[in-house]
Each structure stands twice: as C-alpha cells, then as structure tokens.
Amino acid sequence: MSTAKQFDVVVIGAGPGGYIAAIRAAQLGFSVACIDEWSNDKGGPAPGGTCTNVGCIPSKAMLQSSENFEHVGHSFKDHGIDVAGLTLNLPQMLKRKDGVVKQNNDGILYLFKKNKVSFFHGRGAFAGTLDGSYSYSISVSGADAGTLSAKHVIVATGSNARELAGAPFDEKLILSNTGALAIKAVPAKLGVIGAGVIGLEMGSVWRRLGADVTILEGLPMFLGAVDEQIAKEAHKLFIKQGLKISLGCKIGQITPNGEQVTVEYIDAAGAAMTAVFDKLIISIGRVPNTNGLNADSVGLKLDERGFVVVDDDCKTSLPNVWAVGDVVRGPMLAHKAEEEGVAVAERIAGQHGHVNFNTVPWVIYTAPEIAWVGQTEQQLKAAGVAYKAGTFPFMANGRARALGDTSGMVKVLADATSDEILGVHMVGPMVSELISEAVVAMEFRASAEDIARICHAHPSLSESTKEAALAVDKRSLNF
Q1: DSSP for 214-282?
Q2: What are the cysteine partners in each disulfide bond (predicted)?
Q3: What is the pLDDT along the chain (479 residues), one digit of tens a residue?
Q4: Residue at 102 is within a domain
Q5: Are residues 84 and 121 in the same domain?
C-alpha cells in the first residue's frame, strides 16, 4: 500500500454500517477506501463485522439448522413423515454455518470490487490532521499496513460483547456470542445470563439440539422492551418448549472449575441458589468498539460509555468526521447501521439522507419469531395517548394451520382519533417477514383502516395483519 494515498472518503470498519456507507459513497462518485481488520481462520479478510462473522448471519444459520433438526424429531410425524435413526452431525452443522459466513464475506469483497471501493485489511486508526485543514491521516496496521488521507472519515467500528465483572470470556467455558456459535459438542447443561435477543436465540439453538438450558435474567419482567401482551405470550411458549427462564436474578460469584462453571445467584424470591453448567453464555448487552481508534489524536469526542458523540445527522465533534451503527447512540441493529451509512454518504454528497428511528423494526429470530415496530401499548399508556388495539391469533389463520405452527398473534395499535398506526407487534411464524408491511404502512402514515381495506393473498400469514387491523375497529372476519 502506498504511503498517504488520498481518498475522498475513508470508512473505518466493514460491518453493515461501514461497507454499505462505502458502497453508497462510491456510487455517488467519491473515491472511497474501507478498512477492516476481521480475519478468517486462514488469515484472509472477512469483512462484514460482528453481524456477518459472529452475529446475525451465523446465528440465523444455526437457528435454521437446529429448527430443522427439531422438526424432524418432533413434528414430521404429524405430516405423515416417519424418520428412523435421527442423529445430529454437529460438525457438519457448524461447517455449513461457516460456509454461509464465508459466502457473505466473499459477497462483500465482490461488492467492493464492483463499486471500485479500495479495501484495506488491517486496523484503522486516526493518526492526525493534515496541514491544519479538515482532512485526516488514517493509519492502517495489519496486512495492508500504511497510511491513508481522507477529506471525510466515517467511523463504523461496531461493538463488542459486554463482559460480566469477574467472569471474563475465555470462549471455552464462559462464552460470548462468538463462543456460543462454535460449541463443539452439545452441552448437557447450558447456562445463559441474559434473556435478550442473543440469549434467547442461542438458548433456543442449543435446547433444540438437546441441551438442558437455563436462562437467568436480572430484570423482573420478560423482554421489557417488547409489548407486554406479546412478551407474555412469547414467555409462555418458550417455557412450554422447555427453556427454563428465571427472572429477577441477581448474579453473584461465577467460578470455572475444570470442565464446568458454577454460578451463584439470588432468585426473585430472595433465595440463594447455585447452578452448575457445562457451558455458560453471557449475553448482557454490547459496548462500543472505540479502543484503538486513537480518537484523542484528533480530538474526537467520546461519551462516558465510549460511544462516539454524534448529532441527529451522525456528525461528530470534528468537521468531516461521521460515525454510524453500534458505535453511536440508538439501537444496536444491523439495519439501523445500514440506513445511517446510506444517509451519511448522501449527506457528504450534499443530499438529504434521512433515518426514521420511529420505524426501525426489531426482530428476535426464535421459534416463534418476535417482531415489532413503533410504540408498545405500555408506552402509549405512559404517554397518555388515546389508542385502539386489535389482535388476531395465528390459530385462526388457515396458512398457519397448514404449516402446523399456529402459535402467537398479530397486534395493531392505532390512534383513537385519526386511526394512524402507532405500532405493530407480532409473535408467531415468520413474523420477521410480515413486519415489513407494518414498516411501510407507518412510513406512509397509514391508518389501520388502510391495511384492513387492502386485499391480502389467501391463504397467507399476512392475512393475520389484515385481520388485526380489522380488529382495531372490532370487525375481524375470521375470529
């Protein structure tokens, strides 16, 4: 790599926010470089960040594989399919997961080449300003070591798993999401601290494959960010599946001991408890990845938690320096990072990029899936907003019956006066796909009546959204 090669835009990080920002900036005519240090098991570049390498993509691969395994063992008989001698080939399952990850890594490298984005495999960090102007020197350490200069810098360095005090990750007994996706043998007893997205998804994977899974959650209520009615329904279904979920737990000493780890905790009733697990997954949130960015060298402002401080337009404290994704405020979601990346590239080009945080969808890819957008019923009550609610259960949906999965419901919340949709909440089969209709509707400020009047294909799961919208006006047709 030549020293101090000049670019219009340098993006530090090739996760969802970074690589999308780089591609969009290149589409807009800028000369663009993207720096990322993630490596595969052979030392080659593995762009895509946490999402592609140890997050969204591999977890969905494992969720799909484990769900297939559970279907063969438990529900195929209902379809008249008898399978004898079912066995788990975990090495092949992990190999498939790794193959899916590599396909995504390679896809990003192809997109860089297609869009003429210069990719540098290494760790990017600020090295200073150039000639007192609003240009920056960026050092690259690693395979493509050297120096770049940039008129604009986009920081997209993502996040890391939060460690629990006194229990550092060793990825052997005490696991982050990274280790949770690479367990070589199904543990007899698996502990999970944290009943959030990662905890529930990883707990579901290993329960389906045969582990006895216990989830310990510190909060007194299950999925506090989810609409309460939906969360209660999901909790009931997970318990029925065999997940053991204890709420209101205060975690104490965690002690690795040979091949097991002991967790001491106080349960919701105040009783001292001890549990011994073969593996322990800790999923208590994530922290911004700003270590090594050398922010002090240019005076880039970070907050007390390590996040890059930005305004509503993702501008930092420095001219021509921007930040997107997990490293800034807002939900730590890959699609939120992507939208911010596009918006920033367009703002650099003088356009008016925009991200509507009120219509960012959330999904938990368990079975049943949980998805939502907009405000929950408890939020509307707390804000004193007059609203109407309509629900429709999947048990009354013909396609769900044919699929053999009638768990859950769709819930639509609308303004009591204007009928504008304020939130849509779902738990059930494939709701990760159904939620997009609600996002589109809310972006266009649709009313519940609008969805209720739109013709939906029959039989389809999406009819449940129509029926829930009809139920807002108390005129559901199939329930």
Answers
A1: EEE-SSSSSSTTS-HHHHHHHHHHHHHHT-EEE-S-EEEEEEEETTEEEEEEE-TTS-EEEEEESEEEE
A2: 51-56
A3: 446 799 999 999 999 999 999 999 999 999 999 999 999 999 999 999 999 999 999 999 999 999 999 999 999 999 999 999 999 999 999 999 999 999 999 999 999 999 999 999 999 999 999 876 779 999 999 999 999 999 999 999 999 999 999 999 999 999 999 999 999 999 999 999 999 999 999 999 999 999 999 999 999 999 999 999 999 999 999 999 999 999 999 999 999 998 999 999 999 999 999 999 999 999 999 999 999 999 999 999 999 999 999 999 999 999 999 999 999 999 999 999 999 999 999 999 999 999 999 999 999 999 999 999 999 999 999 999 999 999 999 999 999 999 999 999 999 999 999 999 999 999 999 999 999 999 999 999 999 999 999 999 999 999 999 999 999 999 999 99
A4: yes
A5: yes
Is 196 annotated as a binding-site member?
yes
Helix or strand or coil: residue 38? coil
Do 242 and 273 lie in one domain? The reply is yes
Euclidean distance between CA atoms 377 and 389, whole angstroms: 8
- Does 318 belong to an annotated binding site? no
Q: Starting from the edge strand earliest in sequence, which strands make up the sheet with 279-282, in order? A: 174-175, 279-282, 189-193, 212-216, 244-246
| Residue 346 three-state SS | helix
Q: Is 252 part of any known ligand binding site?
A: no
Query: Is the pTM above the cut of 0.90?
Result: yes
Nearest Cα neighbor of 467 from 395, 375, 367 is 395
122 marked ligand binding residue:
no
Greatest alpha-carbon pair distance for the chain in Å reads 74
201 marked among binding-site residues: yes
Q: Is 198 annotated as a binding residue?
A: yes
Beta-bridge partners for 275: 263
CATH of the domain at 329: 3.50.50.60
**204 and 334 share one domain:** no
CATH for 419: 3.30.390.30
- Number of domains within the chain: 3
Does residue 313 sit in the same domain as residue 275? Answer: no
Active site residues: 458
Kindly state whether residue 458 falls inside one of the protein's structural domains: yes
For residue 257, report the phi and psi dihedrals to the nearest 5 degrees.
-145, 90
Question: Residue 193 in contact with residue 219, Cβ under 8 Å?
Answer: no
199 annotated among ligand-binding-site residues: yes
Residue 408 phi, psi dihedral angles, 5° rounding: 90, -170
